[in-house]
Amino acid sequence: MSEPKKLYIKTYGCQMNVYDSERMAEALGGQGYVEIQTPDDADMILLNTCHIREKAAEKVYSELGRYKGLKAEKPDLKIGVAGCVAQAEGEEIMRRQPMVDLVVGPQSYHRLPELEAKTRSGEKALDTDFPEEDKFEVLKNRPKAKRGPTAFLTVQEGCDKFCAFCVVPYTRGAEVSRPAARILTEARDLVERGVREITLLGQNVNAYHGAGEGGDWSLARLIWALNDIDGLERIRFTTSHPNDMTDDLIEAHGTCPKLMPYLHLPVQSGSDRILKRMNRQHTAESYLVIIEKLRAARPDLLLSGDFIVGFPEETEEDFQATLDIIRASNYGYAYSFKYSTRPGTPAAERDQLPEDVKDDRLQRLQALITEQQKAAQDAMVGKEVGVLFEKPGRLPGQMVGKSDHLHAVHVQADGLQPGNLRRVRIIESGRNSLAGALVE
Ligand code: 5AD
Ligand code: SF4
């Protein structure tokens, strides 16, 4: 048998890219590639890129520059760019950086084996199609190897919402849901390989409406079917849009035993005027009503969100409304970004706010969020939670895992293994993690 070829994948951006990178490794696994963790020995380097905020493309070009030396030493090394920058820039990438052999968009990576073969015959390979065939189903050569206790599973892709700031509808395309039966098969396969927690992924995951028995299934219905899989212990999903937070899904947070008490529900801004200019199709009030219903269903729900500051036309008063909605919602985690112009999106054409105004608002918003995050973490002290252990900690005899609410928890105990799900009493709140003790 010939030596396996070595594949190095560098993943940028969201969890969907992490999932896609796994699929790309599987697709090339069929071509005799094994994945390695550093680029130095690689026969192929793939950058799986993200285009959500500015400078993404520039970052990719500078990363490519770092591989120039390697490529000169090893002419057989193939270099590829995948993901959303590949989709957005296409051929331009090879024009600007001739050492790139392969460009593949997020909807056509199941064709990597053919594209790779093309590069081996000395040609350049480019594929940024939105093909008809289901890219997930073509990847049949998935190895049955054991896996860690947690996994991502993409159930929905793309977006039809067209928020005025966002490139996703352009790079990932229209909303597409995978059929329910295929998702369930993939979930059972993951569980057989050791997975105990699955996070369902989609750009608009709660807009899921995949074909299933008896007609289209909602995300709630899919979650209930996953709840029946023996050996699967925890279910999460991300990212949701407020307008698709249907009653059956809200109710599932109170009644579905394996659905974890954590929800990422971005609102972006607390000002109705800005929400309208963002084309969000909801108001601050309607968002707060959803949060109220969710907390009525599941009082200990930990909420996380995304915020954009410095969107075109945002005044100090609009910004204050964002701080108000943060105070009213009380987040356990939040991610905040300065607005950045994305070519081809409506808001990119508008008058932009000065950088120092954006910086100042981001700082003030992050100070409030940090306070809330710390309070939410500190409030866990004394409580009993489930922890799914993932790996050994820094100290001898220590194991770390994630709580039901997604806090990192470390515990000092003998005999704990990755994949163990235990009841833990939280005894201390540290800077970025909690300390706990096993409940007998
Ligand atoms: N500028 C800043 N933040 C953005 N996001 C999406 N597009 C932009 C942009 N142009 C943020 C949103 C989204 C998260 C994934 O990224 O908050 O929820
Ligand atoms: Fe982008 Fe999310 Fe808005 Fe869709 S709903 S356009 S993915 S921010």
CATH class of the largest domain: Alpha Beta
The tally of structural domains comes to 3
Round the Cα radius of gyration to an integer and report it.
Answer: 23 Å
- The spatial strand order of the largest sheet comes to 2-1-3-4-5-6
Q: Count of helices?
A: 15
State the end-to-end distance: 52 Å
Bound molecules: 5'-deoxyadenosine, iron/sulfur cluster
What name does CATH use for the topology of the largest domain? pyruvate-formate lyase- activating enzyme
**pLDDT average, as an integer?**
94
Shape: globular
Q: Using DSSP, what is the number of strands? A: 21
Unreliable segments of 5+ consecutive residues? none
Q: Report the structural category.
A: alpha/beta
Beta-strand residue fraction: 15-25%
- Please describe the biggest sheet, giving its number of strands, its sense, and whether it closes into a barrel: 6 strands, parallel
Report helical residue fraction: 25-40%
